[in-house]
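User: Here's a protein and a ligand (zinc ion). What would the complex look like?
Assistant: Let me lay out the input and then the predicted complex.
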Amino acid sequence: MHRKIAIEEHYVLPSMKDQMPTTPFWHDDYSRDVRERMADTGEVRIREMDEAGVERMVLSLGGTGVQDELDVDRAVQRARASNDALAAIVAGRPDRYSAFATLPMQDPEAAAVELERTVRDHGFKGALVNGYTSIGSLDTPAYYDEPRFLPFWQRLEALNVPFYLHPRNPLPNQMRVYEGRRELIGAAWSFAVDTGTHALRLITSGLFDRCPRATVVIGHMGELLPFAISRLEARVRHAKAVKLEKKPSDYLRTNFYATTSGNFHTPSLVATIEQMGADRVMFAVDYPFERLQDGSSWLDTAAISDADRLKISQTNAKRLLGL
Ligand code: ZN
């Protein structure tokens, strides 16, 4: 068993626990359990880490973070306050915790400034952003391939830290496909489709030709992309608007990392290693939605080589995050 670094692990401050959005179609006891563990960064979490052989967690703000804050100034303030509170948590257990910043992408310049501040002053390892950001209304999203985000990506590239593109619930005005089947919203299905699509927007926009050293992390075994990239690639070569220096699958290998969060499935892991390379896959659990022990014992026994297991358990994360 290798000691593990788990990099998509969420928290909220105890004061935020009761404001967390509810998921009415979950069983009540599961909802209660998630809420309690999300707000704990003390004894309970550390004990679970010890039991599961998780040496370090990279913490990130759960829920939608500040991505749904419609007031831009308040988004900037909330991100700062939440990052400062997270820095204090990490400072209390620097041997067990690291952090990803939450960013007010409503204002790309402010987001770049906040990223730089948290990396420089707090030693944060990068950022985790919960999907698209709402601009003016919950039905008006910004996606990060849009030209106004280019200076943000250039700053991220200069800081040499990764951007974790984490899921968020679908736009309220795009819920028709889930009508009557709400159980498909969220981690069960919509997260992967939406986040995979957002990641593809980054690729086909040519962002990585402009910022060749920008690094994006996607969770849940690559949000379906390792399985979908071949067909996408075969089709977009016929699209007049797509002008890329490399093949879409090349960017997946050079600008992306995938994590195992919430997807402890060996055939999917093997396919992801095959498509992206064993140097591009990292361990994550998606605490507190999943159990640390489930993810950890699965990776310990998955039918992959021990060399790959070591890379996924810790070496890749250490290299990428400078741990
Ligand atoms: Zn997550």
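Summary: Residues 72-92 form the longest helix (21 residues).
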